[in-house]
Amino acid sequence: MSLVLTPLYFALMVFLWPKRANVVALLGLGVQFGLTLYTAFWTPLPRRITLGDWGAPLGIELWLSPLSLLFCLLSSAVFLGVGLYANTAYKNNHKERSRFFVLAFFLSLGLTLLFVSDDVFNLYVALEIVGLSAIGLSALRPTKEALRASLTYLFTTLVGSGAYLLGVALLYGEYGVLSLDLLSKALVSSPTSNIAFGLMAAGLILKTALFPLHFWLPKAHANATSPVSALLSGLVIKGSFFLLYRLWFDGGLGNETLGHGLGILGGVGVLYASVLALLQTKLKRIIAYSTVAQIGYLFLVFGLVKFDDSLVPRGGILLLALAHGLAKAGMFLAAGALVYVHKKDDLATLQGVGSYAPLSVFSFGIAAVSIMGLPPSLGFFGKWLLLLSAFEHREMIVAGVFIAGGVLSAGYMFRPLSVFFAKPTHTLSLQRPPLWLELPALGLSLGALALGFFTSHILDYAHG
Amino acid sequence: MVNTFLPLVLVLVSLGVGVSIFFLKEEAFKTRTTLNLSGAIIKLLLISIMLWGVIEGRHYHFEATLVHGVKFVLRADALALLFGSLSALLWLLTTVYAIGYLENSPNRSRFFGFFSLCVMSSVGIALSGNLFTFFIFYELLTLTTYPLVIHRQSEESIKAGKIYLLYTIGGGVLLLVATVWLYSITGAMDFAYGGYLEAFKQTHALELYILFFLFLGAFGVKAALVGLHGWLPRAMVAPAPVSALLHAVAVVKAGAFGVVRLVYDVYGITLSYALHLLTPLMVLSCATILFGSIIALFQDDLKKRLAYSTVSQVSYILLGVSLFGPLGTIGGLVHLVNQGLMKITLFFCAGNFAETYNIKKVSQMAGLGAKMPLTSFAFTVGALGMIGLPPLAGFVSKWYLGLGAIEAGFGWVLGVLVASSLLNAAYFLPVVYTLWFAKSTESFVPHIAFHPRAETRLLLLVPPLLTAVLVVGLVLFASHDLSALSWVRLITRLEYQ
Q1: Do A407 and B173 touch (CB under 8 A)?
Q2: Closest residue in chain A to residue B148, using alpha carbons only
Q3: What is the ipTM of this complex?
Q4: Which residue of B has its CA nearest to A316?
Q5: Do A375 and B170 touch (CB under 8 A)?
Q6: For the segment A182-203, what is each residue's pLDDT rounded down to a tens digit?
Q7: What residue segments make up the domains of chain B, in order of their start?
């Protein structure tokens, strides 16, 4: 329970005490990370927590499973990294800093709640907290583009959660239960439940930005300030994806036709977004389109599970989601450090940044290794599992999408890298970005790389 | 007795050195040099211990399950040690050379950091016990050599880097597809003498046939088979030690070594023969041998000439692999070592000419022999060895390849060997002639500072001399138990048992 309440407490503290936001916020993020670690490894899992001793169907229940704890760990680690970065980046603007941290804590609260809740309505509440705080964050620095993007984001997310809520209402009307556990037992295939799940899935897909509902993402992610982009790309879309994943596998709501459709959209999305990423001229746009492409991979699993109901493809997706969370957050922070010096993120102006910000370029490179799915990163093992599953079932089209996506990602990742490595075009003497802007990116990226060595531990833990 | 510890340590040593060098300041010359050299020496010692251990019948095997039965396996079998000891030895020399070469140039920490990571990948490739592990290190090699290729950061090198990536990533993707595909048929299996696919011959013949060519394409990129060689001459913009390393031990050899593993330890030589896979390989390698030699004739740029010579020479290894019969195998495998030694000598020398007097073209080399007699001597030994003059290393390779061709019943391959040797002579002898006998037309002004009585920096001079001595020594001591030839004989016995 304290897992959920910690961010709330610290959000309040930052709000009441904005001048000391740096100390309070970092303390809070540290405590959150420590608590999550403790809960994940030193308490019995899985376990059910009933609030105020009121069990389902009347009361609220939390479900702490290894899977949800893994995502909580991802989230608190990314928050810690981003928090450290933001603390330095907003050093001279107390107002912006405290606003950032209040919203970040609410986001953290929403995500944690999303990962541990066990009934569809509670999940809706969590989804709304996540959505609203994310919009607040994306409008943190009120430039014209950012405001316009966050307005689009606001409408999308409202439509998305509206559709989800409608689905929840239909299910409740049909079965009279909200808990996922009870729901999966009561569920029978009927038009109502199909429509309900269709609505819920559609809402979540919109929020996760699966092709062709991704229109809002590149704008929102590329125009936000860098730490916010890291949170949006690394974590927020994982929230709605996680929810869909749980409804599908734990709620028993998945069905083959829909799975097939999602798989196709995912595959097309991978190719489409990768090509667009190749065409972008701004660094953060490239990274944002790469996120859309990576989301495509996540959805391919729904197409694959039809053929392979073993844990192999699910394990692959889990690894890819974790890898993307860490690597993409790291990459946005690294890009942030580069942009911090230059104030601009056009590739042309960034030529030669490697000469004065080698550490950030290095972090960017390491994160890219994971995004491209090259060994020994976590992303590689995710891809390996999915490829293996595709080959075992002779799903050559799925395999082909993976291969083509991998090649394209190498293209759009090495393009900025070779720009960074080139000789600087201008003789302007630029200073290195502050060390504390560079280190968090390195930590997160290295995490995505090094966790590759612990793949089997992670999978054993998650499916334990 | 099984030792799990040593193969892992061997890989970790270079990793540790590489990572710590990244954190060093540019000026920390002494610490960096100490780290570099001690890493290389420790590596050589460990390899020697394992060589001795394998002779005594010990096994070195490390494995860890990574995910769903897919194992990360490092082990030192005879073939692994052949490649491993070659890279450990040449790495020590290249490190010494690179320290001399990069004196006072910028970004040395970055250079040596990636240099060490590159050693790690190369040794990892040598020790890989299955295709999965091989793939990991093969990709790591691509990633760690890229920053070395573009080290100079000029427009030309960035462009070369792009082309290098285009080829190698393409190769990497092919390898991934082929590996996953094969795993989906066989499940997790380790390299084994004589191959492990015999059991699938009946059920998956067609797939095995297709897969062989996928693998060949994947390894062919790095081994610079004709048509896939485009990156190699362009990558010549890299600093000399990098070129030396790419050509002699790391990238090109990794591709050739991959083919060796594929034919002998995955498919098995008997199965490869039965599936008629060897003949296409033979035709491809003969075409590459002739192609590389002919193009090399027309290069005035010394490094480019050497690059095309590599294209040609590496295919000797593949030719040996494609000849069914122990003699061909011996010829191919022994050339893995010989080509490495000869080519690294030539590249060290080319680097010395360029670094000392800024001479990069063959046409400018007239009279250089008098100015730099020792370097020119080493170059001459390397060049004559490449041509295949007895008693130099290249002769041994060609001798066994010729015997192997006759044994396998492909008399025309002899014709290819003879033609290629003539071509080798045609593009190497003019260089040697120009060095020693042509009249000097220009005055040589040194570009770098060195001791007035020496011909160049000592650190640049010693490595090529040592490798030149080895080019002769390998043949003179060929009958010794630890010579490359005896070792290759041992491997061949194991493969054909």
Answers
A1: yes
A2: A421
A3: 0.87
A4: B67
A5: no
A6: 888 888 878 888 899 899 999 9
A7: 334-497
